[in-house]
Amino acid sequence: MERQGLNVKVSNNDCKSENISRKRKLAEHRKSLPVASVENLLIQEVLRNDTLIIVGETGSGKTTQIPQFLFNAGFCRDGKAIGVTQPRRVAAVTVAKRVAEECGVEVGQKVGYSIRFEDVTSSSTRIKYMTDGLLLREALLDPYLSRYSVIIVDEAHERTVHTDVLLGFLKKVQKTRSRSLNDSFNTENVNTNGLVLKKGNNGKYVSSLRQHRGRKLPPLKLIIMSASLDARLFSEYFGGARAFRIPGRQYPVAISYTRKHVLDYSETTLITIFQIHLEESPGDILAFLTGQEEIESIENLAKETIQKLPESKRNLVVIPIYSALPSEQQLRVFAPTPPGVRKVILATNIAETSVTIPGIKYVIDPGFVKARTYDPNKGMESLIVFPTSKAQALQRSGRAGREGPGKCFRQYPEDMFYKLEDSTKPEIKRCNLSNVILQLTALGVDNVAEFDFLEAPPRQAIFKSLEQLILLGAIANDGKLSDPVGHQMARIPLDPIYSKALIVASQSNCLEEMLITVSMLSVESIFYHPREKQEEARAKMKCFSSPEGDHLTLINVYRSAVDFLNKKKLELNKDKLEKSLRKWCKENFINSRSLRHARDIHSQIRGHVERMGLPLNSCGDDMLQFCRCLAGSFFLNVATKQPDGTYRDFASGEVVQIHPSSVLFRKKPDCVIFNEFVQTNNKYIRNITKIDRLWLLELAPHYHALKS
DNA sequence: GAGCACTGC
């Protein structure tokens, strides 16, 4: 206390004293975290157990503190690092910055982070935060993860595909590393120890073996961190691993239910919003809805209702947020409202984990979520509205108790809650597995169907994806990666069918065009169509559209953006250049976030294909050449027009329609290739180019000659 | 006539 007074007096050294006081506040904050009281206990547990499950709820401080405890306990001796994985990029970045500050170092030194497109680490980095997908990529180069003494998998309860695959892989690495140590003890000869994953004919493993010959690898310590109350699944998977619980810090949230079953939750949600506004104390409202359309309709209804209120009660603003919304508009949820004004945020599940909105005191939860599912038989993805799980309902209500006691209004009766599934079906059980299988195969897993998954995906899904990878020429009949195509495909961080398209294109003189195409296909929708400016947006889109289809249209958009940048490059600095590009995007109804993402992917993948020695050639104006290349690359996704004007998917025989966002929506060519097969209200194919059916017999005879 | 959320050396 006295010292604080002293700091204030030293006016000629304000900056320094501010720093000191910030440092002290940081230190005090660290000491007050629930995890701080168990530091010694925790270290002992890690020393005693190779695998530890840590259950820590929101606010326990586990993500920021535990890596520092381990560092201080000497887990980074011998230059080894502690790796901490996160499912999301923003989390990896913000946590790393926070921990660097707590350690009093620049981020990128002792504490760093690595995410796609951004590596802020150095040779001195000892605590490395990263996305789980990135660690999997790293493992392709270093299958023993030899630079790490400890891997912490954070947010494991979210069960993303990457987390699940990573857990399976880490279990395998851990076994191999322990075996290598034991064997070297037994034989006292490190050179002949069992470091090889039994099959040394793969070049990568041999080189990795050579690298470690003569050095024994210490066992890999694994820490699985989860916020869910149920650690049993993780514990059993890791051979009865010890689970350790850290209390969280969350304010109480009062839960209420409806008395009766609700028929129209939009209506009750709207009523609840206004009940809260008129009857409850100040505090913002967060309502969880299923999608953009629903949000827009409730937004309009709410705005109309506000106008009908007496003037003194009109102090309520409605703010939508969902992922497809341009970033500037997403940021509105963070803008503080004027004093005395309450805001109500209408959100998709983006607000469950990805975006934390401050000031929320009331949560409205209708109990539904739109989720992606995958039908392996048809190879079709669907977006379906499901009831939430219990875990998800808890996650949502928790959003009301971040800053003080809150309330959650569930729009269903209490007995419904007990009928909900305990937890959401893990993603690995409801997605296309082509990427997972290619990656596991590249990591040396021989029989993916028998791989020790935390929870195995449907066998049908595994076989379907294996079949696809065999048809693409990535995996040979013996189940191993083909050489060189399979190895090249595994190295490129894209959907396997896009990686293959790059290889095909390089052989038919149009890699430059295909690189742009797959970059654009890999991001969320490029075009942004606000409801109130539909006509204007459509007119702008026409400027880019190509009669051949969406792929060439996407190339036109990308090249126009690059032309625009090149023209402005001379007169503007980097910041102004990006700003003017955003303006150009807005004028052309293009989502600038998506375009930025596509440019990042483009530059990353260009690096990959250049290192592989693929010639970055262009077909110039010969668009026929490129369309043939599209047919040769996407021969697995063909649809033909039927007499009644609908289309039939060649592979599954399903009746489909061209998605209304396609430039070919009205043109209806006889035969098309497509890149997405999605069921929403109808079965749609998206991203389409017209082709000549005869090309297929010539370009993909192994598939189309047999079937037609 | 239409788009849950994440992510990749």
UniProtKB/TrEMBL annotation:
First-level EC class:
hydrolase
Keyword terms: ATP-binding, Helicase, Hydrolase, Nucleotide-binding
Question: Which is a Pfam family this sequence falls into?
Answer: WHD_HA2
One Gene Ontology BP term is: regulation of RNA splicing
- Segments spanning the bilayer are none
- Entry keyword annotation includes ATP-binding: yes
Q: Any keyword Nucleotide-binding?
A: yes
Q: Which GO terms describe its molecular function?
A: ATP binding; double-stranded RNA binding; hydrolase activity; RNA helicase activity
Q: What is its EC number?
A: 3.6.4.13
The record, for InterPro entries, names:
DEAD-box_helicase_OB_fold (IPR011709), DEAD/DEAH_box_helicase_dom (IPR011545), DNA/RNA_helicase_DEAH_CS (IPR002464), HA2_WH (IPR048333), Helicase-assoc_dom (IPR007502), Helicase_ATP-bd (IPR014001), Helicase_C-like (IPR001650), P-loop_NTPase (IPR027417)
Origin: domain of life = Eukaryota
List the catalysed reactions: ATP + H2O = ADP + phosphate + H(+)
The segment(s) forming the Helicase ATP-binding domain are 43-247
Q: Where is the Helicase C-terminal domain?
A: 270-444
Q: Which GO terms describe its cellular component?
A: nucleolus
State what protein this is by name: RNA helicase
Q: What is the species listed in this Swiss-Prot or TrEMBL entry? A: Cucumis melo (Muskmelon)
